[in-house]
Amino acid sequence: MCLWFVLSLLNKRNDVADTAWGLGFVLLSWVSFYLGQAHGARGLLVALLVSIWGIRLAWHIHRRNKGKVEDYRYAKWREEWGKWFYLRSFGQVYLLQGVLLFLIVLPVLLINKNIGQNLGILDSVGLAIWILGFVFESVGDAQLAQFIKNTTNKGKLMQSGLWHYSRHPNYFGEVLMWWGIWLIALSVPSGFLSIIGPITITILILKVSGIPMLEKKMEENPEFAEYKRRTSMFIPWFRKSI
Fold first, then answer.
1. pTM for this structure?
2. Dist CA 87 CA 109 (whole Å)
């Protein structure tokens, strides 16, 4: 995170932290796999799952931000924090993100620290849930990117595809993936204790930096009030009738 803070200074934009987010999980997963005691199929499985998720997310965010001005959230903080901007950025964006990253990845760290049972039913269920979550996040992101790319949609809200059933299908998918990895961790000693990981990412997205910040921005769109009334916030469901 210190390295990415330096990169943010060189690039004069703090939204590189969003690209760093997914890659940090990939790094911790493989380092813990290498240093751990297990070196088994379960550790390899979750390292691959985290890598697929983290690299896709990092590339998606990098491509989305490339050639554009700094993300509005960081630009707002740059203005609000004034002379304390660099110090608060280092602490509240990069170091804090590193701590949260460590908490969320705990299921993976415990898997790589302990030799558990052979792959079984919990691993299969966890993998199935992870795949479902990955589909929601990746497809939701792709649908939104295609919608924004179409200039005729300027000023409109994405309300088709997965976004017809949830206002945040990509966030739903991300949370689901980490609960899936936690289920896989239940097969190793003390695996249950790593529940702090999926709980942390769930709270972050539902209550802190995910949905609340984005919906505050979406409220500026005149279509949002009706979209909010009819569409499930998080868990995909059928829309309410008019």
1. 0.92
2. 30
Please answer whether residues 2 and 81 qualify as being in contact, where contact means their C-beta atoms are separated by less than 8 angstroms: no
Q: Give the separation between CA 58 and CA 61, rounded to whole angstroms.
A: 5
Instruction: Name every residue whose Cβ is closer than 8 Å to that of residue 79 and which is 6 or more positions away in sequence.
Output: none
Q: What does the block give as tokens for 202?
A: 């769930």
| Cβ(21)–Cβ(77) below 8 Å | no
Which of 146, 175, 172 lies closest to 158, judged by CA? 146
Residues of the chain under the 70 pLDDT cut:
38, 242
Task: Give dist(CA 192, CA 77) in Å, integer.
Answer: 37
| Greatest alpha-carbon span in the chain | 57
Domain residue ranges of the chain, discontinuous segments joined by +: 2-230
37-63, pLDDT tens digit by residue?
767 899 999 999 999 999 999 999 999
Burial 92-113 (b: 16+ CB within 10 A, else e): ebbeebbebbeebbbbbbbbbb
Token pair 């990955």 is at which residue?
134
